[in-house]
Amino acid sequence: MGKSKSRTAKPDATASRADQPVQNGSKAAKELGESPAKRELNPQESESQTKPLQPKEKAARVVGIRTSGDGHKALGQLLEQIQSNSGMTFVFAQHLDPEHEHMLIELLSKATEGPVKVVKENVQQELTKAREELERRNLELNRLHNDLANLLSNVHIPLITLDNDLRVRRITPMAQKVTNVVPSDVGRRITETKLDVNVPGLENLVLSAIKTSSTVEREIQDQNGHWYSLEVRSFRTSENKQDGVVLTLFDIDGQKRVENNLSQERKRGQMYLDVAGDMLLLIDSTEKVGLVNKRGCELLGYAENEIIGKNWFDSFIPERVRVDTKAFFSNLMASHGDQIESYENPILTKSGQEKTIAWRATNLKGDSGTTIGMLCSGEDTTALRSAEEAGKHAEAALRENKERFRIMVESLGDFEFFIMDPTGYVVSWTAAERVKGYREDEIVGQHFSCFYPVEDFQAGRPMKILSVAEAEGRFEEDGWRIRKSGSRNWANVVITALRDEAGKLSGFSSITRYIGERKWGKKLQFN
After folding, report:
1. Which of 13, 59, 326, 356 has the fewest C-beta atoms under 10 angstroms from its C-beta?
2. Nearest Cα to 8, choosing from 70, 67, 87, 80?
3. What is the DSSP letter of 310?
């Protein structure tokens, strides 16, 4: 035999012609591979041995055929028997002298419409190159694997990689320490492992991240109450194929403890504010309410969340005084000192009612010294102002009535009227000065017994008269009464007991009519 040359033909599926299964093709190839001296193919025998069979499956099959230089006739007969839908790929190797003219390409080109490739190089060289390339790629893949393993081993963040059916694929050392997921759990579903962290609805979180190709976050705690932020992030391949999720745990325990402490301090501070009897209010530099205590909510009639963030002046100050109130606020905000200013203005409640508030306010400064708001303490003076107004009206009415009564008494000439407390001391005097000679400032605070003669005073008659008036409600008699000058005058006296709504004695009134020397009537005697 001369030097061996390989010829390779790869007809495509539509151009291939073979219904024989691989075994028959291999048998024909074996026969063709033998020397012509040993066997010559009989066309009738070949035809009888290559009856068409239906292919068992559509999977691609490779058939190798080796022939000598004189086997092209048998090869041509074989190719004529191969059907076009065989789905086979044929590799032909022909041994002949390099100077000998070969017909393999011609035969194969007639048998298929697909490409025919002639491999002139040594097949062993191709295999060697392929093996070297495979080794190079395996080495590169191994290096990448080692780099990834080293990287994950030195990352101080708990990471767990899951595939799409929630089975553990990879764990970092820190994840083992935090979650108690160990290397033996690789391949198991994450829900079947004994996690040291409490993740309610973990399976739903993972499935949601896979379904939406998004990132899901939750705040969780471990068995010791340590806080972590769990991030479930889906990842995709370079072909944009969903390929699982990564669970990442971030330590936020310090942050949560600070937040909890701030929350507790705020609640404690709010509690102190809420026990205050006055309304406390914080207004920032934009005129919005930043803080209000319980008393403030009660006065305004709103819930806290209905007040916080609202513009104080536009929402809670009556329009008629809004401009002046804003001006006071602006002046205080512009001041550079820490002085406390006082002012009073009405506020508008949720029901539309106005209440008067007396404020004490001071501005608040930030770290840079810039004014950031105003702290106000307000006392509800609505009732006090109403009482003051009512008192002013009552006082005016009393003065008016008193003046009318004085004029009326003085017009009667010989009449006098005064009020005593329960012990007999004069508290109100409306008698004409010309009757007894006393001015109001001279007699108010004196005991009414000064109007009685010495013998009646020594006998205790004034107090007996008050006792009778208290017991019976009224006392009347004719008798001597003494003026400021010491002179006597006969008078008719009526003393009446005064009581409050509860029936308690509050004093006595005395009405005296002087009748001169005409001694009519009868003086009462006491046992």
Report:
1. 59
2. 67
3. S
pLDDT 10s digits, 243-277 = 888 888 888 888 888 777 766 666 665 555 555 56
Q: Which residue in 98, 13, 91, 117 sits closest to 58, CA to CA?
A: 13
Quickly state the pLDDT bin for 513 (edges 50, 70, 90): confident
pLDDT at 301: 92
Q: How far apart are CA 228 and CA 82, in angstroms?
A: 69
Cα–Cα distance for residue pair 489/415, rounded to 1 Å: 12
User: Rounded to whole angstroms, how far apart are CA atoms 465 and 445?
Assistant: 19
User: How many residues in total does the chain contain?
Assistant: 527
Give me 332's structure tokens.
Answer: 């205080």
3-state class (DSSP) for residue 338: coil
User: Is residue 300 over pLDDT 80?
Assistant: yes
Residue 64 CA to chain centroid, in angstroms? 74
Query: Looking at 177-181, 256-260, 296-300, 519-523, which range is the least confident one?
Result: 519-523
Nearest of 471, 513, 453 to residue 462 by alpha carbon:
453
State how far the Cα of 337 lies from the Cα of 276, in Å rounded to an integer: 26
Q: What does DSSP say about strands 341-348 and 242-251: parallel, antiparallel, or unpaired?
A: unpaired
**If you average pLDDT over every residue of the chain, what do you get?**
75
DSSP string across 14-53: TT----S-HHHHHHHHHHHHS-TTT----HHHHHHH----
Which has more confidence, 371 or 523?
371
Helices (H) and strands (E) in the chain, counts: 17, 20
Q: What is the DSSP string of 344-375?
A: EEEEE-TTS-EEEEEEEEEEEE-TTS-EEEEE
DSSP state of 88: E
Tell how strand 371-380 and strand 279-284 pair up.
antiparallel
Q: What are the helix (H) ranges across 157-293?
A: 173-179, 202-212, 253-274
More confident call, 134 vs 72: 134
CA angle 260, 253, 204 (to 5 degrees): 100
| Cβ 50 vs Cβ 82: under 8 Å | no
Structure tokens at 265: 């301090």
In the chain the first and final C-alpha atoms are separated, in Å, by 177
Strand order in the sheet with 116-117: 61-68, 88-95, 4-9, 116-117
Q: Which two tokens stand for residue 111?
A: 């048998």
* Amino acid at site 508: F
Q: What share of the chain is helix, strand, coil (3-state, %, to 5)?
A: 40, 30, 30
Contact 498, 509 (CB under 8 A): yes
Contact at 8 Å (CB) between 435 and 443? no
CB-based contact 135:143 (threshold 8 Å):
no
